[in-house]
Design brief:
Blueprint lengths: L1 H6 L2 H30 L8 E5 L7 E14 H6 L10 E8 L3 H4 L3 E5 L3 E5 L4 E6 L4 E11 L2 E5 L1 H48 L5 H32 L2 E6 L5 E5 L3 E5 L6 H17 L2 E2 L4 E2 L2 H32 L4 H13 L4 H24 L14 H25 L3 H9 L4 H29 L5 H4 L26 H10 L4 H36 L1 H4 L1
Antiparallel strand pairs: 1-2, 1-5, 2-3, 3-4, 6-7, 6-11, 7-8, 7-9, 9-10, 12-13
Helix pairs in contact: 2-16, 5-6, 8-11, 8-13, 9-11, 10-11, 11-13, 12-13, 13-16, 15-16
C-alpha cells in the first residue's frame, strides 16, 4: 500500500507543496517584519516625562519617546555592574529617544525601571524636528521676533505655528532659487568656460570671441547677483524669528526658527490627528532629501536614482539579449561552438556581481570613458567627464550582468514557437527576416518580458558593483534636470540598496538609523515589485494577444 502510494508520486507532490508553502510563509513573515519595524518609525509617539533617580545622583527629569524595552537576566545584569533593588529575576530597561543631541551628546538613553519614580505625558511637551542636531524635546516658553518676545504661554504655540509656516515657505523659495536658478547659471558658466578652453586648444581664441564671451559672462553674473540679492532678502527675513524653549533640566534655549522643519505636540493629538500626521511623515520620507548623514529627512534621490538606473539598464539589456538569443536560435548553426556559447552564457549568470563591478570600472570607466574624454572632451582635462564612475557605466554594468538571464529566457520562448508557424509564414511569401520580425518575435515577446522581469528583479537590489561604477552616499544633483541635455549620464547617483548599506553600517547614530534601514528596505521591495508588476502587466497583455496563434 505504501509502495503504491510512493509510486503514484503523491508524496513528492505534497513535499513540493509544503516547501513552496514554507517559502511563502517565510517571505511574507520577512516582509511583515520589515513593514512593522519600518512603518512604525513614522507614527507620532507620545512624549513621556520620567522622574528618574539612579543610585549615584539626585532626582532628575528625562523627556523623550519610549522606543524599546529590554529584560536583562539578573546574573547578566550583576555581571555588567547593575544592582537589582528588588532582587528580581530580571532587570527591566527602557530605551528612550531623548533627542537634544547638542545638549546631551546623544539621542538615545537606556534607563532602568527600578529607578523611575513616576512617568507622565503632559500636554505642553513639544517635539521640534530640526535641520541639524536631530529632534528637540521640551516645553515652548515664548516666540521672539528680532529678539523681542511677541507671544508667551499658550498663545506662543499658535504664533509659532503661523511663523513656522511662513519661514518654511521662504525656505522652499530659497531652495528653489538655489537649485534651479543659481544651478542653471552655474551650469551655463561652466559650459562657457569649457567652450573657451576648446577655442584655446584650437587656437581660435581671438578678440571677437573674447568680447562675445565677456558679454555672455557679464549677463550671467548680473542674473546671479539679482538672484543672490533675492536669496539674501528671504534669508534675512526667515532669521527674524526664534523660539525660547526649556529642556528637561529647565534650562532655557533659543532655537532659530529657520532651522526648524516641524513642530508637534503628540500628547494632545487624537488618533485621527496621529493618522494624518503619520501619512504626512511617510510622504515626507518618500519625497524629501536626506539630512544628518542620511539619518534624517527623506530618500527621494535614492528612489529616483534606482528607478532611472533600472530603466536605462532595461533599455540596454533587452535589445542586446534578444539579438543574441535570435542569432543563437534562428541563425547560428547548431553544433559544438553553439553549445559552448550557451554553456558560457549560463556560467556568466553565476559570476559574482562584484566581478562585474571590477570589469565595469576597468573597461567601461577607464578604457571607454577615458577614450571618450580624450576624443570629445579634451577641454575638460584634467577633470574627467565620462572617465569617472557615473549613471551610464552603472547601467551598462548591470545590463552586462543580467544579459544571460534575458538571453536564456528569450531562447526558451523562441524554442516554444511551433515550426509550422515559421513554415506557414515562409510559404505565404514572407522572407526569413519578415517572419522573424512580424511573427516569431511577437509570439516570443511574453518570454522576452519574463527575462526582463528577472533582470529587473536582480539588478534593482544590487549594491556591490554599483559601489565601483557610480553610486555615492549623497549626490549634489539629480541625473535628470532642466539643463541641456537634461539627462546627464555622466553624473553620479544615489541608490536605495547602497543607502541601506550606508545607513545600516556606516552611520555613527545606530539607534536612529535602525528604523530607517527597515523603512528603506521596504521601499526598495516596493519599487522592485512596482517595476515587476508593470512588466508583468505588459507580458500578460502580450500573452493574451498571441494566445490564438499558439493554438
Amino acid at each position: 500500500m505504501i509502495n503504491a502510494w510512493f509510486k503514484s508520486g503523491s508524496p513528492w507532490i505534497w513535499m513540493t507543496a509544503g516547501a513552496v508553502s514554507l517559502n511563502l510563509i517565510l517571505v511574507v513573515g520577512l516582509l511583515l517584519l520589515i513593514a512593522v519595524r519600518g512603518l512604525g518609525h513614522f507614527w507620532p509617539a507620545d512624549i513621556i516625562e520620567y522622574r528618574y533617580q539612579d543610585r549615584d545622583g539626585p532626582e532628575s527629569s528625562i523627556i523623550g519617546e519610549a522606543v524599546a524595552n529590554s529584560l536583562l537576566p539578573a546574573a547578566q545584569a550583576r555581571a555588567a555592574g547593575h544592582e537589582l533593588l528588588d532582587n528580581g529575576e530580571y532587570l527591566v530597561q527602557h530605551l528612550v529617544k531623548t533627542g537634544n543631541r547638542d545638549i546631551l551628546g546623544s539621542d538615545f538613553r537606556w534607563i532602568q525601571q527600578q529607578y523611575i519614580h513616576s512617568q507622565s505625558t503632559p500636554d505642553d511637551l513639544i517635539m521640534v524636528e530640526r535641520r541639524e542636531w536631530g529632534n528637540f524635546y521640551g516645553r515652548l516658553l515664548a516666540v521672539k521676533e528680532d529678539g523681542a518676545v511677541i507671544a508667551q504661554g499658550e498663545q506662543a504655540w499658535q504664533v509659532a505655528q503661523q511663523k513656522l509656516a511662513t519661514v518654511l515657505e521662504q525656505h522652499d523659495e530659497i531652495d528653489s532659487l538655489q537649485d534651479h536658478e543659481v544651478g542653471a547659471i552655474n551650469y551655463e558658466l561652466e559650459r562657457l568656460r569649457l567652450k573657451q578652453r576648446a577655442l584655446e586648444l584650437k587656437n581660435a581664441w581671438n578678440d571677437a570671441a573674447k568680447q562675445e564671451f565677456a558679454a555672455q559672462k557679464q549677463t550671467y553674473e548680473k542674473q546671479y547677483q539679482a538672484i543672490q540679492q533675492q536669496i539674501g532678502k528671504l534669508s534675512k527675513e526667515s532669521k527674524r524669528y526664534s523660539l525660547v524653549v526649556a529642556e528637561a533640566g529647565q534650562k532655557e534655549i533659543s532655537l532659530p526658527l529657520h532651522r526648524v522643519v516641524k513642530m508637534t505636540r503628540p500628547n494632545t493629538m487624537s488618533v485621527l490627528d496621529k493618522c494624518v500626521e503619520y501619512v504626512g511623515n511617510f510622504a515626507t520620507f518618500v519625497s524629501d532629501e536626506p539630512r544628518e548623514a542620511n539619518t534624517e529627512g527623506g530618500i527621494f534621490p535614492a528612489i529616483f536614482g534606482t528607478v532611472l538606473m533600472v530603466m536605462l539598464m532595461a533599455v540596454v539589456v533587452t535589445p542586446f539579449g534578444v539579438i543574441a538569443a535570435v542569432y543563437l536560435r534562428e541563425y547560428a548553426k547548431q553544433g559544438f561552438i553553439t553549445r559552448v556559447i550557451r554553456i558560457a552564457v549560463n556560467n556568466l549568470a553565476g559570476v559574482p556581481s562584484i566581478v562585474y563591478g571590477v570589469f565595469g570600472l576597468g573597461f567601461f570607466v577607464y578604457i571607454i570613458g577615458g577614450n571618450i574624454d580624450r576624443l570629445f572632451f579634451p577641454e575638460a582635462a584634467p577633470a574627467p567627464v565620462f572617465g569617472t564612475p557615473g549613471l551610464l557605466w552603472a547601467s551598462l554594468t548591470l545590463a552586462l550582468m543580467t544579459l544571460p538571464v534575458v538571453i536564456v529566457a528569450t531562447e526558451e520562448g523562441l524554442s516554444r514557437i511551433p515550426k509550422s508557424i515559421r513554415e506557414g509564414s515562409l510559404a505565404l511569401g514572407a522572407t526569413k527576416a519578415e517572419t522573424l520580425w512580424r511573427t516569431v518575435l511577437p509570439m516570443a515577446s511574453p518570454a522576452i518580458m519574463t527575462g526582463l522581469i528577472l533582470a529587473v528583479a536582480r539588478a534593482a537590489g544590487e549594491v556591490a558593483p554599483l559601489m565601483l561604477v557610480g553610486v555615492v552616499k549623497l549626490a549634489p544633483t539629480l541625473p535628470l534636470d532642466g539643463n541641456f541635455p537634461y539627462l546627464h549620464l555622466d553624473r553620479k547617483f544615489m541608490h536605495l540598496g547602497f543607502h541601506i548599506y550606508d545607513v545600516g553600517f556606516q552611520s555613527p547614530n545606530v539607534e536612529a538609523a535602525r528604523p530607517l534601514v527597515y523603512a528603506t528596505s521596504l521601499l526598495l521591495v516596493m519599487v522592485i515589485i512596482g517595476l515587476n508588476m508593470f512588466a508583468i502587466s505588459i507580458r500578460n497583455n502580450l500573452r493574451e494577444k498571441y494566445r490564438a496563434l499558439e493554438n
